[in-house]
Amino acid sequence: FKENISTLEFIRSGKELYEEGLYVELQAYQHQLFIDFQEVYDAKGDYKRLSENLHGRGVPSMQQALDELQLLPVHEAFQQLLSRDTLATLEEYWFSKKNVSFDVISDNYAKLLRQVQHHLGSHIHEVVIVEEMLKDVRAMRMLTDVFSVVDKHDQRVDKPGELFFSDLDSSRHHDALVVFAWISLRNLGKLIPDSRIQHSDMVFDILHLNEVFDQLMEGHGYDNNQRETTLPLLKALLFCHKPPMASEGGWYQDSLLKLFNDQNGREFLLINSYNGIWYYNKERFELLVRWLFIVSLLQDIETSGNTQRELEEVVKASYRRFKELLMVGEKTHYRVEQLTEILVHYANKSDVRIL
């Protein structure tokens, strides 16, 4: 039933109502109005567990609370997968170039896949998806190796590897979290039927992961600003899936155009109006393009059999495109209309430079 003033929803067992009635404590001049009483039959015991967890408290949505209760095994497995130990292992492998064992990570990922399949009723061999996840993890190591080679032979001040991956431990931890969360959720989305998911970012809503991921970041010591930025960034990256054989320039531009028209993308870019002109946030735009550069290269490595030399050239070409997009942002003074006009014009012209 629902309390009309607070709009909170409550649940009580029939036995409790029969034996104790509906007990309510009110302060002076306080009143409550209970409406929308419904009787539900608890065939699986889920409502009993929910009632015991709430201890009489009201919630904004009883259905959402029930969904989250049923998803608790998924949430616990997700938090275990993205634990401090996991990220420490990946930091050593990706950034310190150490050999590590992936046994625990693979086992935890397989556990998460099983829980998701149980919840969704899907049937996909988990071993295949675990292998695809590990392939992405190894691709990230290849990318950092290529960055090291390119940086060593590049005379520019802003070298790709130094620009994208900091030597600061706190930044490396954050980079590892974003990369592995993207890898894990991107592959996890393959368990969800196409009828329910059009973009991989929808996995957050389908599995109610928003609050879980925020709690996970808080546990890792991230401040409010980092948490408010990282979740929408991750959703934006999952939204931008790069099709095989997509042209580098065309994909960057097409992805940005889609994000400017997507609600989550607009929220991440902090799009706002001033004197009738729509602007996007400079720092958020640069952060987004930086990470599009990374995930684009990861997908290139995953789907290609390029040699080390060829990958170096791919990194250099993609880096030039990245710098070009940043220059476009600066040239348009971070105005939405001007940027989108340029992106629309060149979205399918990968052989033409933007500037």
Description:
The chain is mainly α. The protein folds into 3 domains: 2-61, no CATH class; 71-239, no CATH class; 242-355, no CATH class. The chain is 63% helix and 3% strand. The protein contains 17 helices and 4 strands. The strands form 2 sheets. Strands 1-2 form a two-stranded antiparallel sheet. It has a two-stranded antiparallel sheet with strand order 3-4. The chain is globular, with a radius of gyration of 24 Å. The N and C termini lie far apart (60 Å). The model is unreliable at 351-355 (pLDDT under 50).
Unreliably modeled segments: 351-355
What would you report as the Rg, rounded to the nearest angstrom?
A: 24 Å
What would the principal axes of the Cα set say about the shape?
A: globular
Mean pLDDT: 84
Helix content: 55-70%
Number of domains: 3
Distance between the termini: 60 Å
Largest sheet entry: 2 strands, antiparallel
Sketch the topology as an H/E string, one letter per element: EHEHHHHHHHHHHHHHEEHHH
What is the helix tally? 17
Compute the number of strand runs: 4
Q: DSSP strand (E) fraction?
A: under 5%
Instruction: Kindly name the structural category.
Output: mainly alpha
Enumerate the strands of the largest sheet in spatial order, edge to edge or round the barrel.
1-2
